[in-house]
Backbone:
């Protein structure tokens, strides 16, 4: 057994899990009128209700013991202090410095990084303003109407998600587009509608060696030059965001048009850095600053609040509770706001690339589950797709519901009618998952309708019973503003961090994506030329041969 699973806190939670058995949340609510107050809190403009969980005050106490045993507070402080907690890459983890709105210095190897952070932010602001105001023009002197961000993973998902989420704040005449997939369709379909004279490309890649991004960037450059003809015009239409100046120059982008960041910014934590340039162009520097401030407010809460009142820590510990003691292998994140339609996709990288690990920080195999699979869609669409399984399937899938109290689009026969319907759905879903519906309730309901015989009623009862006792958190905010979104993202970043610490894994590397990349580069030249016998397994060789015969 590893130190974690043989530890006193782990053993106490295992015992407690047995003691709790089938205790139903319905009964816990009935027994304690103060449950909602006890298990809810507000921080950085977000309200979290976590009362609909399979927990008692004892559960929480034991989970907090686990967090303390794993030294969550110590690791948190080391992260904020710029220590190299990304051990396999010997790097600090300082996305919090990017949104540090205080005058506190943040040191990496004794050097305050804040002046450099502020300098890049100022350049981003100036550039974003120039594009938005039509001062930065294309080579023909026309203002930029379309910005295409070419990046993938962390250099795409964050900016896409945020620009979609903050569309109500977007510039009216500068449209944002995102191309990530190396499938030529993504670039081709995007460029189909664009005018090279008024299109600006942001090539975003931390390493500037990512195959998908460079392939797309080279094709975009060809598309532009087919029209502009002269290489000299590239400077007005291509800028780069990267940590790798040498590769940027090699691609042909002037370093004067490059926005830098640093190795202590992980790709999936980089939307706060220059990777956020498309966001700053879309919503403007002031709103971008509000996004940073919202995240900073959550950072301050996470950094200073005691664990028992610490929103990210509580969310993380609840996740650990279900993952490790209830065998819940997936979680659903369900935003009741159409603007958050890419939120789950963004969180998939944040959570699954961070905590999809199976060795401890010191390289031993884990003997406990780590990160869950994460999925989600905006409500109410999800309700008509996969909620059936969450309500009545055989897997336990803890849910996070997210909703703003007000909408940017208060439409309907009566003002705001749509939003009230939306909210009634989110509250109803959480209630239904928790309460369920007993056989007695189903029987009484069907009998009262008077439409069915007693035999028919009895035949249907088992199908219409909802077990309930299905856990969920509900996160509310007044409005989906840049600040609220910043706080929400930071909440999940810190949640993932705490879980990584509890599980004793490194949440900040991603070696797991390397093997596929390596094999793809071996296969690429063999696709046309064919492969030597025995170079691949029969399946891979067979698929390649089928492709050659059928292309
Ligand atoms: O998927 C692996 C990964 O390294 C991610 O962590 C990263 O966000 C993405 O590739 C893109 O990398 P880059 O920004 O260097 O192009």
Residues:
């Amino acid at each position: 057994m590893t130190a974690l699973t043989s530890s006193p806190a782990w053993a106490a939670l295992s015992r407690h899990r047995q003691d709790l058995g089938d205790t139903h949340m319905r009964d816990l609510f009935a027994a304690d009128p103060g449950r909602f107050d006890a298990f809810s809190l507000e921080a950085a403009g977000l309200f979290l209700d976590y009362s609909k969980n399979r927990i008692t005050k004892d559960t929480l106490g034991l989970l907090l013991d686990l967090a303390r045993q794993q030294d969550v507070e110590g690791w948190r402080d080391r992260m904020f202090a710029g220590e190299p907690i990304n051990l396999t890459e010997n790097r600090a983890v300082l996305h919090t410095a990017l949104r540090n709105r205080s005058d506190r210095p943040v040191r990496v190897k004794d050097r305050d990084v804040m002046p450099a952070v502020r300098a890049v932010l100022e350049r981003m602001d100036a550039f974003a303003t120039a594009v938005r105001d039509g001062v930065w023009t294309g080579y023909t002197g026309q203002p930029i109407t379309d910005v295409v961000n070419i990046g993938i993973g962390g250099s795409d998902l964050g900016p896409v998600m945020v620009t979609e989420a903050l569309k109500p704040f977007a510039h009216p005449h500068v449209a944002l587009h995102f191309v990530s997939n190396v499938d030529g369709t993504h670039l081709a379909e995007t460029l189909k509608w664009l005018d090279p004279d008024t299109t600006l490309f942001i090539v975003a890649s931390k390493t500037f060696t990512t195959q998908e991004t460079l392939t797309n960037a080279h094709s975009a450059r060809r598309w532009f030059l087919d029209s502009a003809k002269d290489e000299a015009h590239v400077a007005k239409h291509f800028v780069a965001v990267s940590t790798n100046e040498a590769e940027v120059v090699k691609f042909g982008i002037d370093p004067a048009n490059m926005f830098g960041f640093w190795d202590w910014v992980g790709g999936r934590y980089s939307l706060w850095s220059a990777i956020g340039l498309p966001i700053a162009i879309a919503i403007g520097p002031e709103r971008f600053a509000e996004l940073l401030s919202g995240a900073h407010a959550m950072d301050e809460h996470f950094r200073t609040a005691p664990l028992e009142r610490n929103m990210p820590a509580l969310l993380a510990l609840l996740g650990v509770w279900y993952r490790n003691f209830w065998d819940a292998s997936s979680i659903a994140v369900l935003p009741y706001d159409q603007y958050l339609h890419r939120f789950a996709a963004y969180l998939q990288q944040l959570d699954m690339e961070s905590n999809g690990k199976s060795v401890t920080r010191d390289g031993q195999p884990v003997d406990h589950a780590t990160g869950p699979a994460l999925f989600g869609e905006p409500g109410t669409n999800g309700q008509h797709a996969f909620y059936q399984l969450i309500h009545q399937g055989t897997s336990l899938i803890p849910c996070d519901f997210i909703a703003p109290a007000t909408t940017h689009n208060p439409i309907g026969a009566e003002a705001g009618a749509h939003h009230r319907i939306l909210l009634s759905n989110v509250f109803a879903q959480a209630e239904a998952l928790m309460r369920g519906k007993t056989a007695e309730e189903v029987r009484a309901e069907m009998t009262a309708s008077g439409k069915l015989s007693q035999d028919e009623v009895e035949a249907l009862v088992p199908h219409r019973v909802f077990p309930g006792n299905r856990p969920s958190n509900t996160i509310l905010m007044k409005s989906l503003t840049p600040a609220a979104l910043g706080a929400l993202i930071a909440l999940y970043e810190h949640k993932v961090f705490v879980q990584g610490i509890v599980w004793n894994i490194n949440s900040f590397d991603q070696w797991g994506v390397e093997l596929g990349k390596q094999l793809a580069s071996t296969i690429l030249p063999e696709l046309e030329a064919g492969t030597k016998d025995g170079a691949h397994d029969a399946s891979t060789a067979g698929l390649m041969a089928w492709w050659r015969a059928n292309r």
The pocket of 6-O-phosphono-beta-D-fructofuranose is lined by residues 152-155, 205-207, 210, 213, 267-268, 353, 510, 513 (CB under 6 Å). Residues 8-70+305-435+471-509 form a domain with the Rossmann fold fold (CATH 3.40.50.10490). The chain has a mean pLDDT of 97. The CA atoms of residues 540 and 546 lie 10 Å apart.
